[in-house]
Automatic annotation (TrEMBL):
It catalyses: Cu(+)(in) + ATP + H2O = Cu(+)(out) + ADP + phosphate + H(+). The keyword Transport applies. It is found in: Cell membrane. It is an enzyme of class 7 (translocase). It comes from Handelsmanbacteria sp. (strain RIFCSPLOWO2_12_FULL_64_10). SUPFAM superfamilies: Calcium ATPase, transduction domain A, Calcium ATPase, transmembrane domain M, Cupredoxins, HAD-like, HMA, heavy metal-associated domain. Keywords: ATP-binding, Cell membrane, Copper, Copper transport, Ion transport, Magnesium, Membrane, Metal-binding, Nucleotide-binding, Phosphoprotein, Translocase, Transmembrane, Transmembrane helix, Transport. This is P-type Cu(+) transporter. It is a multi-pass membrane protein. Belongs to the cation transport ATPase (P-type) (TC 3.A.3) family. Type IB subfamily.
Length: 904
């Protein structure tokens, strides 16, 4: 989906799919290519979503020019997705999902074919060694041509995606993960072909006649299995977007000329009258004009209790009408609906990068070339200084290094966690704008709650009317309400609503209306000059309120906001207003404290009123009598004291404060979810969502850290192991097939670790505490557990095979000056037994020792080297021992081997 945003500088922002990316190096190449396009301001490429977020000047940079740049890097930018409306995008997402399903099936088939043929090749070449088959007379060399003709087409077909991608990158002078896989498997295949069809040439060069057809196929099979599991997991990480797109109904019942017409949602227009019956979803945003019902908004707000709706109330598209029938007038359609904005915000967040990812990006940009250098150095070190067979050991270690190196895990560590974390947040009505917001939320030390709309319902009501002597309640309230008709302040609207509720007429109107921010209002009503406002406002106007001040202080102590009224310069009375606390306010404050945060309340109320409300919710720190324009200054003061500050407000008059704070949280926004000043938006009005958003951010960032640690540790530990570190400890090398399995496991582990965030739930206040060491251990136990299990399995398998080999009967042969000791060997063995040959060459030339008539009973060694081989006894009897010294002595008999069932 292409999500578009424009700013005042006419910078256009698009989110576009990118095809062909497989690892973090690919991300680096695509970003580098797009940044080189003139007019491109910023680029963020996300490996998990396979999308690029590009901000550019459309007067300079064009979509075709960006696509060309990406194509030159070996990838493709899907610019045709740049202008799809929401409905078309939902359909396209369905097609994409079907295409991904087909691709997964194809990957599974290719992986199965590669694994089956790889095991078949392994069986043909080594089955006689592993199992006793009396009638089998083939040696491993006899099977090589057949294995070549079976394995080659399967390797080309199953590994084509890697070879094609490596070629595309190579044509543009770039390397990536596919380059490593292609080099590793093709080098193994090419050497195997040379040994199969030019064996004499290989042998005359003193090289071991070994083939690796099975290794290439098994490597590709494990790579494909890893890709299959990774793609499936990545599809699950994108589940939030798919779920959101699936919320919107396909059609709506539109009332036109008195008739109800079923209309596709893409054809709806603002001001259309739409009927929604019980059990149906509301199609688009609008305002109820007829009927009453309860609407379930949990799919967008995360709040499970249905909300009562009646004429004049706002409804949000994609929510569920549960009881009565409603008729509403559409106000937002298409890309303007709350659902479209939520999808936009989630995609924007999932396409963003957290600052913690910068190190991973820097390393990933140079990772593949560095691995190729390490692989070449490994080959040279083993070839020049290693034991025999030097070339074969050098080849195995080089292939293992190429295969085991994993830039994918580094590339997926951050974006998959952000995808799952922000997607989970969207399901709970918590919209996080970026990865940076997640990190900031985790570092918070101080949180400031704007009283109105956050802790209170944001709908104050008149609770008390106190007239002075000589004036009645009706006159006092009517005059105050007439003046307040010109005000947009919630307190002013509450005064007007109370007067209308009592049936007072306000038709007379006022003249000369003036409002003082944070103070009050004044106007002339019927020739009388009326002031309505706070005590300080009336003092500034020169009006004494001595007779009312004690009453006002009493109201303030009870949590009411006193509004003083003066007529023609004389105090006339007092209105007490109260904004009811939200039922969840006290619990929300407790949860924030349990997170270890310093909680403050900010309000324009008097200090007495503010303190009374703060006591009710459990807040000790209060910023009272703060004018709207001063809220941002209060944020600066708290930041200057060393705090990392979050501001929580409803976005009505606190946008500057939200922007000034390190983290701005807008709460209870309803359909208006795209507040530019906020970093986190809570669609619902439940203040407990603030603590949930912070807790989710902490979990997400902790997951990112564990992913990155795993990715770096994996490469730091296993690349040296693949290069020969294991040989120093055990005398054995890491099998390239096992290297491929380890590489696949590393990527899959990172993705599945991120998927664990899907289990996050709103919790009780007590469970929101700062993680104790034991909790951190549990958080890290998943990846650590995978590492431990994999290590135990590997060590156990190796120990079993090593013990099995050590228990075999052994023939020890030494060669010196064309003489062999012993020349006659007597061996007690049964048909079917495995026998190990230890051959030490003390001569100055290469020797090849073999037993005539027994398949695979041969071993070669260079001067001064010792080599091992195993063969299976097929029958008892006497056999000739032969030796070849290339360039010195052709094959000749040098002794005998007697095998019988008795004691040797």
């Amino acid at each position: 989906m292409a999500v578009e945003t424009k700013t005042k500088q006419e910078i256009r922002e698009l989110v576009l799919p990118v095809t062909g990316m497989t690892c973090a190096s690919c991300v680096h190449h695509v970003e580098k290519a797009l940044r080189r396009v003139k007019g491109v301001a910023t680029v963020n490429v996300n490996l998990a979503t396979e999308k690029a977020t590009v901000a550019f000047d459309p007067a300079v940079a064009t979509l075709p020019s960006m696509r060309t740049a990406v194509e030159h890097a070996g990838y493709d930018l899907m610019i045709e997705r740049a202008s799809l409306p929401a409905a078309a995008e939902a359909a396209q997402e369905l097609l994409d999902e079907q295409a991904r399903g087909r691709a997964l099936t194809r990957t599974a088939i290719q992986a199965t074919a590669a694994l089956v043929v790889g095991l078949f090749a392994l069986a043909l070449m080594f089955l006689p060694k592993w199992f006793y088959i009396p009638w089998w007379r083939w040696s491993a060399e006899d099977a090589w041509p057949l294995v070549f003709f079976v394995a080659t087409p399967v390797q080309a077909w199953a590994g084509w995606r890697f070879y094609r991608a490596a070629w595309a990158a190579g044509r543009h002078g770039q390397v990536n993960m596919n380059t490593l896989i292609a080099l590793g498997t093709l080098v193994a295949w090419a050497y195997s072909v040379l040994v199969t069809f030019k064996g004499d040439f290989v042998h005359s060069g003193g090289l071991m006649s070994e083939v690796y057809y099975d290794s290439g196929l098994i490597i590709i099979a494990f790579m494909l299995v890893g890709r299959y599991l990774e793609d499936r997991a990545k599809g699950q990480t994108a589940g939030a977007i798919k779920k959101l797109l699936g919320l919107q109904p396909k059609t709506a019942t539109v009332i036109r000329d008195g008739a109800e017409v079923e209309t596709p949602i893409a054809q709806l227009q603002p001001s259309d009258l739409i009927r929604v019956r019980p059990g149906e979803k509301i199609a688009v945003d609008g305002v109820v004009v007829e009927g009453e019902s309860a609407v379930d908004e949990s799919m967008l707000t995360g709040e499970s209790v249905p909300v009562e709706k009646r004429a004049g109330d706002e409804v949000i598209g994609a929510t569920l009408n549960t009881s009565g029938s409603l008729v509403y007038r559409a106000t937002r359609v298409g890309e303007d609906t709350a659902l479209a904005q939520i999808v936009h915000l989630v995609q924007q967040a999932q396409g963003s990068k957290a600052p913690i990812q910068r190190l991973a990006d820097t390393i990933a940009g140079h990772f593949v070339p560095a691995v190729m250098v390490v692989a070449v150095l490994t080959f040279l070190a083993w070839f020049l200084f290693g034991p025999e067979p030097r070339f074969n050991l050098a080849l195995i270690t080089m292939v293992s290094v190429l295969i085991i190196a994993c830039p994918c895990a580094m590339g997926l560590a951050t974006p998959t966690a952000i995808m799952v974390g922000t997607g989970k947040g969207a399901e709970m009505g918590l919209l996080v704008r970026s990865g940076e917001a997640l990190e900031t939320a985790r570092r918070l030390t101080t949180i400031v709650l704007d009283k109105t709309g956050t802790l209170t319902r944001g709908k104050p009501a008149v609770t008390e009317v106190v007239p002075m002597d000589g004036i009645d309640e009706e006159t006092l309230l009517r005059l105050a309400a007439t003046v307040e008709q010109g005000s947009e302040h919630p307190l002013g609207r509450a005064v007007v609503e109370e007067a209308l509720r009592r049936g007072f007429s306000l038709n007379g109107g006022s003249e000369g209306f003036r409002a003082t921010a944070g103070g009050g209002v004044q106007a002339s009503v019927g020739g009388q000059h009326v002031l309505v406002g706070r005590a300080g406002f009336l003092d500034e106007q020169g009006t004494a309120i001595h007779g009312l001040r004690e009453v006002g202080e009493r109201m303030a102590l009870n949590g009411q906001t006193p509004l003083y009224v003066a007529i023609d310069g004389r105090p006339a009375g007092l209105l007490g207003l109260a904004d009811a606390l939200k039922a969840e306010a006290r619990e929300a404050v407790a949860e924030l404290k349990s997170l270890g945060l310093d909680v403050w309340m900010l309000t324009g109320d008097t200090r007495e009123t503010a303190q009374a409300i703060a006591r009710q919710v459990g807040i000790e720190n209060v910023l009272a009598e703060v004018r709207p324009e001063d809220k941002a200054n209060k944020m600066r003061e708290l930041q200057a004291a060393g705090g990392v500050v979050a501001m929580v407000g409803d976005g009505v008059n606190d946008a500057p404060a939200l922007a000034q704070a390190d983290l701005g949280v807008a709460i209870g926004t309803g359909a208006d979810v795209a507040l530019e000043a906020s970093d986190i938006t809570l669609v619902g009005g439940d203040p407990r969502g603030v603590a949930a958003a912070i807790a989710l951010s902490r979990r997400t960032v902790d997951t990112i850290k564990s992913n990155l640690f795993w990715a770096f540790a994996y490469n730091v530990i296993l690349i040296p192991v693949a290069a020969g570190g294991l040989y120093l400890l055990t005398g054995d090398l890491l099998n390239p097939g096992l290297a491929a399995a380890a590489m696949a496991l590393s990527s899959v582990s990172v993705v599945t670790n991120s998927l664990r965030l899907r289990a996050f739930r709103r919790q009780d206040a007590a469970s929101f505490r700062r993680p104790a060491p034991a909790d951190r251990v549990r958080d890290w136990s998943y990846l650590a557990g995978i590492a431990v299990v994999a290590t135990v399995v590997a060590v156990g398998g190796y120990s079993w095979s090593r013990n099995a080999a050590d228990s075999l009967p052994t023939i020890s042969v030494e060669a010196e000056s064309l003489r062999y000791a012993p020349a006659a060997v007597h061996l007690a063995a049964q048909p079917g037994d495995l026998v190990r040959v230890s051959f030490t060459n003390h001569d100055e030339v290469f020797h090849d020792w073999s037993v005539v008539g027994i398949p695979d009973a041969h071993v070669s060694a260079r001067a001064g080297q010792m080599a091992m081989a195993t063969f299976r006894v097929l029958q008892t009897g006497s056999f000739e021992l032969w030796c070849t010294v290339p360039g010195h002595w052709e094959a000749g008999m040098v002794g005998t081997l007697v095998i019988d069932r008795g004691e040797s």
